[in-house]
């Protein structure tokens, strides 16, 4: 099947069902990272991922990795750690720093200056959110993503200290569930998110959840700047 080239003049995406089986989920290339295009993509179960220097690639993999907040897996060791945790956790208090932290990877990153700028625009518009993990006054972990009604589309996370990213997802999952959130999108399953309770569901099921929950509201307080833990 031929890969579809997006136009900069149109926000149109092909249906996710047209994505390639190999590489799994590759749907289209090109376009841009404007807020309108990103919002359109995420509302359709599509996300960008590409290497620096390559064209923008758009994906909708099958299966899709998701985490239901009430199914978060808290291991005994993590439970013990959390009970004596040296961390505090905040919401939406250092978005730009969290994105920067997520971009600092030894193996390289797709979170280029252009990607950072695009997500900062989304944050300033109220569509993107961040969770920060602090040890004293140092940012040691966190995660960011996009809020779509009762779904949170997790984009990336990072950790500079023991269990910091696990703490971010644990505390956020509890907060999101309490505020009416129903589903966290993890995009593609990896050992880290699988160990915390994420699982794969068919793309058709993911799209059904997206259609059902993206327009359903969470609490008015959900995304206010606040301390979570």
Quick overview:
The protein is α+β, with helices and mostly antiparallel strands and 229 residues long. The protein is 30% helix and 26% strand. The model has no long low-confidence stretch (mean pLDDT 96).
CATH superfamily of the largest domain: Leucyl/phenylalanyl-tRNA-protein transferase, C-terminal domain
> Poorly predicted ranges (pLDDT <50, ≥5 residues)?
none
The total tally of domains equals 2
Count of helical stretches: 7
Specify the CATH architecture of the largest domain.
3-Layer(aba) Sandwich
Here the CATH topology of the largest domain equals: Aminopeptidase
Rg result: 17 Å
SS class? alpha+beta
Helix content: 25-40%
SS strand fraction: 25-35%
Strand order of the largest sheet: 11-5-10-9-8-7-6-12
Tell me, rounded to a whole number, the average pLDDT: 96
Distance between the termini: 48 Å
């Amino acid at each position: 099947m031929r890969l579809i080239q997006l136009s900069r003049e149109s926000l149109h995406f092909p249906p996710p069902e047209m994505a390639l089986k190999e590489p799994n989920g590759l749907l289209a290339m090109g376009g841009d990272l404007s807020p309108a295009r990103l919002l359109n993509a995420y509302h359709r179960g599509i996300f960008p991922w590409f290497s620096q220097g390559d064209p923008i690639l758009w994906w909708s993999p099958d299966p899709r990795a998701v985490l239901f907040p009430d199914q978060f897996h808290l291991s005994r060791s993590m439970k013990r750690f959390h009970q004596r945790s040296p961390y505090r956790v905040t919401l939406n208090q250092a978005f730009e720093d969290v994105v920067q932290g997520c971009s600092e990877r030894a193996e390289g990153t797709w979170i280029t200056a252009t990607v950072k700028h695009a997500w900062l625009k989304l944050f300033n518009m109220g569509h993107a959110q961040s969770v920060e993990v602090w040890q004293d006054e140092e940012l040691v972990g966190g995660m960011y993503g996009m809020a779509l009604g009762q779904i949170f589309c997790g984009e990336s996370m990072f950790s500079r200290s023991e269990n910091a990213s696990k703490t971010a997802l644990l505390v956020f999952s509890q907060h999101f569930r309490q505020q009416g959130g129903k589903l966290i999108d993890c995009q593609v399953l990896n050992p880290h998110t699988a160990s915390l309770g994420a699982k794969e569901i068919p793309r058709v099921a993911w799209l059904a959840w997206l259609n059902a929950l993206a327009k359903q509201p969470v609490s008015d307080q959900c995304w206010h700047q606040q301390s979570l833990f």
